[in-house]
Queue: 2 jobs
Job 1
Amino acid sequence: MAATEVQHKGQLVADDWGGGSFPFHIGHKKLGMWLFIVSDALTFSAMLIAYSYARLSSEQWATPFAFSPSILFSTVMTLCLLASSFTMVMAVAASARRDRKKARRWIGATMFGGLLFLGLHLYEWMHLINDYGLKPFELPRAWLERWPNASPLFGASFFAITGLHMFHVLTGVLYLGAVAMTIKRRTHEDVEISGLYWHFVDLVWMFVFPLIYLLSVDFNPEQMPH
Amino acid sequence: MSARFGGLRGLAGKQDVILNAICLLFAVVFLMLAAANFTWSGDFLTIDSLFVTTVFALLALVFLANPLLWAHERGYIRSFLAAEDELTAKKDAEPVHFEGSVKLFGAVLFGLLVLTVVEVALAYIEVGLVLMLTILIGLSVIKAGLIMAYFMHLKFERQSLVMALIPALVICICLLFVFFPDGFRLLNTRPPSQPSAPAGATQPTH
């Protein structure tokens, strides 16, 4: 498909700004994925800005994540996602060499990274829900003693933003699984598009991790009442 | 002169010239209004005055865009993108559009890891919240740029794709910042809460 594009390049592609039938010189599927990514990026930025708004307009905000173990735990999650992004690049590179077998193997590694992230994240959620008693619109009692005027919206913002991101990771793993299963019938562009989506999920985490976790570090964890 | 502008043969060219002249006229009018606002308003550095100036300047820019593009197309303005055009043309000739090597992607991954470690280190040494937020956002934007440019292959795509996607996204995100002044207002207009609620007090759920 890419070869025919280049063959007809003379008629279909004008100069860099002239338009032609391929104004962006990418396939319609890839353009569609890019447009979806842009709109999805706006969804996530709207949620992160809503969280910043809630935090800005509150007298106090709970900052409950101790460096060890909470921050280190989420750092490991970040490393999982970064590593899976790298294996996805390797999958796209293998697919560009028409090496489908290797591409499938690298996609499998990517899915493994994604599943590891999901598992760790779910473990953290369960820890916050069961051990602390964090609810969407209610802070745990120990946190309220520590930060008496803290906004109860902590749970809502945390669960909404990380939950939406987790949903994207889950969708990405399923999507990659579908691509890996049917890789013999897939063009290089199909693999590349699934890679675009996966990198986007990684990209979003690069903003969620500092804003949600690193800005809520508990610098004096020994003061937390038990 | 009469040969160029007379008769039906030159109609298309004439049309362009007339439309561009009208656009140029509007642009000049708006530029003059922006300049006039500078003298009319007693105190220039007020929100209203700056807003009006910005709106006039933007309108002038909008009307200027077409004549400038037309002149650029005709070669009246020398293309400063000429060198880059050649580069892209050479790039587009390759059959499978994939660039980058394991070495390059490995280097990008290493950069991302280093930036992440710096971010996490900030959570270990205590700096102020505002400074920390600034550094974190700055580093995150760099990381996002790295991921988009190399992992998402945007650096090797046509420039028209980048220009179609990224500026619109950045502007839309910046427009969302309009809520932040309201956040401060909400904080300052709220009645002060009771001085430190007693320990174990039940907080009403909303």
Note: Residues 11-40 of chain B form the longest helix (30 residues).
Job 2
Amino acid sequence: MTPTRTAPPEPRSIAVGDTLWALEVDVTATLIAAGAIATRDFMPVHHDRAYANDQGAPDIFMNILSDTGYCSRFLTDWAGPEAMVRRLAIHLGVPVFPGDRLVYNGEVTAVAVEGDEVVVVVGLRATTPLGDHLTGTATVALPAADGA
Amino acid sequence: MVDEALEVQLAALVGQPVGRGGPSIAPDPVNQPMIRHWAAAFADDNPVYTDPDAAAATRFGGIVAPPLMLQTWTMPTPTLEGIAERGGSPVAVGGGTALSVLDRAGYVGTLATNSEFEILRYLRPGEVVSSETVFESISAEKQTRMGRGRFVTWATTYTVETGEVVGRQMFRILKFDPSGVSA
């Protein structure tokens, strides 16, 4: 399900236009409910299908705290364990339902060396068959040199 | 037609706390079981969250909490009985919330549109997080694809016991009147 990952990029070699490894998530009701509860969001639209139907939704749908969770994983799957997520801003589009394949893609849009860190700005997008689920930008900082 | 009384009520909310009774204090300190639960939910195998030896070898020097778990620590412990009847509110709220003003004005629908985090530093097990949320802005009525609505923006500041600010969040929802638009 998840593409095989290689070692994180060498911070000083990161360049504008570099793409992050795509993250593909085959979404199930279990995943949506587990994400909602792990983030302590007990809103019934995220675990109770009958309730979601009463609200006009075809099924339960993913909560926002799960979205930011997946964004965080998507960023550090690529950037590695030394990465620090400094900023994440997302704009939400279509909801994510069970049965959807949610695909994250991202691209480096800016890189700067600040002190002993390489600071990378990433533009990211997560799509489902219905369209963009979210778009956003993130800032990730990495130590400029190993062992620095 | 502009409802002058409503405009005054909404303008008065800006800068005011969203919750009643002061900051929300995390019911539990940052801890490994909740971190492990979170990491498993998103299949996030970053070792700095769950592997003490691997985490010690990184610049963090030990286990840290996932940065975007920040919002989770201060989520209220829910009363599950009756949660559906309360419209999903995790705990009973006497007298309604500040958003009730918008519900009464017909903007009963809610749709989250934006979330923006600034992470100043990562949290370690044992730290106790507090959050304080204020209304940052409430827009004029706009026509949206969901119907007429207003964008409500609130700003949350996350601190630890010492008062140090560890993160900030901007969150925006659309409160809309679903009656005018067919699905």
Note: The first helix of chain A runs from residue 29 to 38.
